[in-house]
Structure of thiamine phosphate synthase:
Amino acid sequence: MFIIRQESHAMQEAVSCVEVAKQSRIPIVINDRVDIAMACGADGVHLGQSDLPARQARMLLGSDKIIGVSCQTLEQVQKAYEDGADYVGSGAVFPTTTKKINSAIGLEHLYALCRGSPLPIVAIGGINASNVKEVLRERPSTLHGVAVISALFDQPDVCKATQELAEIISDVFNS
């Protein structure tokens, strides 16, 4: 799954990414913007706590689209579930340069959310090649993966960084 960040040229970027991703059968999830997700034919949307509530997004997008919600507490996870979300993005697990407000929940809190969640969880925030094994070490049944931005796009060779991270993750899941 690939998440488009909100930028000034978001619609143009989203349309281009959707075209490429559909050819490769990679789901595209737009960050924060239900309107752009609808307009470009994306597979879904990822919402923060201050964005449109998942229940309203579900009404607009329908049952066949993916809806994820960022959550830091079990109460938020439960609300996301009740509102029709498909997954939870939990974090930031570690400090990150991607968000302006940068409070990390840490691994133990991530695992507690996983144990209490009825939804699949994707760990987000500050995850990279040096700590992804640690994030995935316990592999709670609801922890379905990690989402990264800086771990790839802050590297001089994005393709090489992607391959290295994919190998590490594959090794964890195949061990």
About this structure: The CA atoms of residues 46 and 68 lie 4 Å apart. The chain has a mean pLDDT of 89. The radius of gyration is 16 Å. Helices lie at 10-24, 34-40, 54-61, 74-82, 106-116, 132-136, 150-153, 158-174.
